[in-house]
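agent> Task received from the user: take the single chain below, predict its 3D structure, and emit structure tokens. No templates, no multimer pairing.
agent> Plan: (1) validate residues, (2) run structure prediction, (3) serialize to tokens, (4) report one or two observations.
agent> Step 1 OK, no nonstandard residues flagged.
tool_call: predict_structure(input=
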Amino acid sequence: MTQEKDPERESKIKKAILINPNLGHPRFLNVGSDLQRMEIPTPLLFISNVSDPGKFKELIVNKLNVVPVFEYRWKLEKELEEKRKEKRSIWTRIKNIFLRKKSPNQQILDYFDEERIELMGQHAVRGEPMPAKILNVKSVEPCKLDDFNYLKDNFCHPHEFLVKHGIFKEFEFFFIVRIGISLSDEVKDFLAFRNFMMCDIIHELDDEEKRVNYHSIVFTKKDWKDFTFIQATDLHLAERYDRVYGLIKQGIKPIPRKERDDEGLIIKDKSPRAILKRLLKPLEKRINNPNNQFRKFIKLMNEKVRANELDFIVFTGDLVDFVLLSRLPKESRSFDYDRCNWRIFKNLIINHPDLEEHEGVFESEELLCPIFTVLGNHDYRPHHYSLLWLKMCERFGLTHEEAEALEGKLSIAISPWNSIVKDSMTLAGYCTEINPSLNFSLKLSGNSFIFLDSGSDSYMNIVDFISGHPSLTGVSTEQIGFLENVRRREIQKDDNVFLFLHAPVINPVSKGRIFKSIKKSIFRRKVKTLKLEDFKEFRFGGKLEKKKSKVRINNIFNIKHSTVSSHWDELLEFCKTCNLILTGHTHTLREFRIHYDDIANQDEHSFSVYHDIYSQIFTRPKEIKKFGPFAVQTPALWLDGKGEPKGTVSFREIKIINGKIASFGVVTIY
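)
tool_result: status=success, residues=670
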């Protein structure tokens, strides 16, 4: 049984926590191509329960180390080469003959196999620690998002959200610590072959425990004129999905409710029909496990990293399906990190084995690429939902009978409405272990990246909510101020500007669809509904300048469906600054281009919206620059909009060549 944590004891032991950079908000440090920089400075953000800078400094002096993360293949190949050099000498060959030892080549293979077996389960190894030299320490106050200070110190200023909601409990004093890092020889050797190297930051605590901020420092040789990044969205990870396969293998026929007990919820169904069904479609081929899809994605990304074809990944929300582990009884529910699916997300990234082994779980690897994270509406949902609710079981490849039999094993009885309530503490594990910044920006040479939290489920647009496609609460006045500060302070005239958020900024639906649906059901009349596919910009052929009125969709469709409930107009106005707006939420592939009219107020809106699959049409940087901005929705990583696993892995790949956006197409692996 897990021992409950004592907050008072914790505060005595942990007096300082490094919160930025972290796994979902790493720090890029350019080392140049010659790798001759002796000491690389960078700021770190700490939170502490001591207010005095002098006492705080004592907690971190000589206790910070930067540890490089190597891919195991590179490490083994390097050691193998050393062995080859050692065994090439004439004296070694003569000695082996008299001692009747194996040939040098066989000894090398034996050595390789032994080391490979030892490290196979890790897929990444840590190098020698590089001590961090403390250059200076200063105390800072938390500020609002729209405060100019929030953009200072390479985005190290803390947001008041962290203290207001008690994310770090009794910790409330912030310090910016500037450190210096000297690269080790093995890091330089690695960077001779790779474009970047990730490092963990380890803070040794007083009680001999260690706080690790994984993948938080990235040394890079890039000048950011030629690079590639990936946008992936809607992962919907949860611990319970790794349990499904093993449980169903026990059988699929539920015991009648009156005869059920805690241990015997599932028995074997030996009927001819059930046996035939299992033969025609084996269980492993129809179960859709989001966690396994993410494991596939990680392996694919690692291959790109090894080929120097990928620089970072952005996850745009719905990282988890819900926050609290689904099997927690009411008296045990808390938002401690260990009891949340945030632990599952992080463990999958760093390939940390979970507490239990489950059958049907794919082999995993540690992701060898830095990531940036943005929240989605599911990341705000504290409780799980029943797999029987709204036929959700079908999306996971389960029959109704199987889902019913699994209920007691996977879930605690809970009202369907509780699964969509909000709670600010759902973000506690996310902020402490993954990313403390809900909204932030990043400037890499002539490229500006803006990461925006589009909020939780909104009940304002009740029609969207009831239809199963909820809008999100949207952006606040503070966030609009933040965007304006980024525009004025960080974005230059010719920058490539990328905006990432979960909710789409444009999502068309036929106007009057509810009335038409009622008319069809009551009067049983045929009702003509408009289809977005009929209004593709290139459907009519010809040049873009011709027949615009026929394909302009914002006067024909409601383009605000399932987007954001507040400040939508201001958000859309900011999009004028962007080249690409990359979103998720709908689990579909949709792309729009926004043309801002020169003359304001000539229509209902001062912009025109067009639809097509532009990433396949515009294949030259000049076209992408000229006809943008483009607001795109990327398919979910594991299921499409109808719940069908048409592509096992879908993501969007954005390439920048010679400082220009060259492509932004979706990649689907079948």
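agent> Step 4: summary for the user.
The first strand starts at residue 16 and ends at 20.
agent> Done.
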